[in-house]
Amino acid sequence: MPAMSAQTYAQRAQKHANPAARQLLETIERKQTNLCVSVDVIKKADFLAIIDAVGPFVCLIKATGTHVDILEDFDETIIKDLQELSVKHDFLIFEDRKFADIGNTVSLQYSSGVHKIASWSHITNAHPVPGPSIITGLGVIGRPLGRGLLLLAEMSTKGSLATGAYTEEAVRMARAAPDFVVGFIAQRRMEGIGATGTESNVEEEDFLVLTPGVGLDVKGDTMGQQYRTPKQVVLESGCDVIIVGRGIYGKTPIDINYVHTQAERYRKEGWSAYQERLQLSSS
Ligand code: S5P
After folding, report:
1. Which residues are near ligand 1 (CB < 6 Å)?
2. 98 is catalytic
3. Is the pTM of this model over 0.85?
4. Which of 29, 82, 121, 254 has CA atoms 20 to 30 A from the CA of 18?
5. Residue 202 to residues 1, 32, 138, 153, 178: CA-CA distances in angstroms?
6. CATH number of the domain at 3-282, please?
């Protein structure tokens, strides 16, 4: 496995050039958690209650709930509430926007509209499908604000088309913009992938790998999602952050005590998988 998986989050934080990546790595180390909770619920009250309950156990909250297409009762106050929770519990915010358009359009989507994502989301993500121009478009907005971008190099779903040459090209795109593209949504480490041997910085590259499709009790859902355990993701595949959604809040009706217990459970699993990985690589 590439060397990055043998380094501590703190060591990597010291060297990272991007402010959002550095802040995330420092938060992971400070709170001893590599758990990101994904909150995809339709009511604002549930959205905020879940985040308040899992806050102590996470480094990052992934919100897709801020999209008008999930939350039924979105209003401006939700962003302010989310930011207050982020300060209260010391976590970063990741808007899972999955941009996928031409540079000019994504730069408007990132900066404007009702959501003004760039103004409050430390990290966001994009599909590499349009090519490097998507990084140019988002970078115009995100770079001056110190934001970080993740590319979706792989997906967790059955039959995903993001494999092989597509994944390699995504890594090449990231390699060309290391000050803004901080890593990937992917299922394994990405350093060195797609390198041609002519690059100067491949040995030094450090991509954050945030991995969805994580669950301890089930192997998937009825719509193509596939789950692996924190141990498979962090220890065996060397990923940095586990993204967990329904495994934590998925019991209906939402039960905040259950959410709290599950968040604690996933934090512990993710962190011990990381500690085991460090131990293995030092022995
Ligand atoms: O490949 C992916 C990429 C993403 S961002 N697979 C995913 O599942 N996701 C997101 O992670 C997905 O949109 C959802 O918000 C979350 C997984 O949720 P869960 O309830 O299945 O854990």
Report:
1. 38, 40, 64, 96, 155-156, 185, 212-213, 225, 243-247
2. yes
3. yes
4. 82
5. 14, 28, 24, 17, 11
6. 3.20.20.70
